[in-house]
């Protein structure tokens, strides 16, 4: 039984085809390397103009990132204030201490209440005297102006449950006023959400501005090399071949702007770290200012590079096709 053998011409054709594909790939890779190096050399060869472009991109990226970091730090600080939620129940002035203790026991028996704590008016006055620094003035008062206070901690911390319990306590006999201690935190959360949306809107507008700046910069670079582009197209260069160096130019502008943005944000946080640290010590808090970190700066560099490529692609796609040999 004879074996089928591949003809020498077929083996030679396959080898020749693979060699051509390998040569094309090597040429494509070599042109990428040359384009990247040449575009970087051109960017660094104009330090004044390049630095101004990097500064504009860096400031545009640093502003929303810095505001977002500030919101994250405030949110971190707010989280330490949210435990536990409680309702301050101020009793009427004619309620004596014995009646206040009976009311405390009654409120503690409710299903919605986890625990209660009574702060008698004398105890409240002593605490206010020690903390306010007006001991002499308070001692001259004929009677204690403070009412008895019961701190009520609910079982559930949901908004609806807290609101219902607050309404029941407000209407209870002997209660002058019930104050929900978490209301101001809920207002702060609403302000934080509004601020975050404003940061997103500002960031979106600044990103559009970065794309326009990069597009205009690449357009000027294209116009300055119009004759070179015409010659390349005369000898058979494709639009992709002509486009490649300008895409790398946009990439380098974006990467430099992102790196500068990271440095600006880090310098700003370093500038604020001292005063914030002193304020934290005065309040005896464990809060620590959170910064970008290495990954944050790297993310900024990547975002800047992507914006640079996008802006360059828009400009190049629009202007390269219009330049044709006559």
TrEMBL record:
Residue ranges annotated for the ABC3 transporter permease C-terminal domain, each copy included: 201-323
Family annotation (InterPro entries): ABC3_permease_C (IPR003838), FtsX (IPR004513), FtsX_ECD (IPR040690), FtsX_proteobact-type (IPR047590)
Xref: NCBIfam families: FtsX_Gneg
Location of the protein in the cell: Cell inner membrane
Keyword Cell cycle annotated: yes
Protein's UniProt name: Cell division protein FtsX
Keyword set, alphabetical order: Cell cycle, Cell division, Cell inner membrane, Cell membrane, Membrane, Transmembrane, Transmembrane helix
The organism of origin for this protein: Candidatus Marimicrobium litorale
Keyword Cell division found: yes
Oligomeric and partner information: Forms a membrane-associated complex with FtsE.
Topology of this chain in the membrane: Multi-pass membrane protein
Lineage start: Bacteria, Pseudomonadati, Pseudomonadota, Gammaproteobacteria, Cellvibrionales
Function: Part of the ABC transporter FtsEX involved in cellular division.
Domain of life the protein comes from: Bacteria
TM region(s), chain numbering: 51-71, 198-218, 251-272, 292-316
Residue span, FtsX extracellular domain: 86-177
Record family assignment: Belongs to the ABC-4 integral membrane protein family. FtsX subfamily.
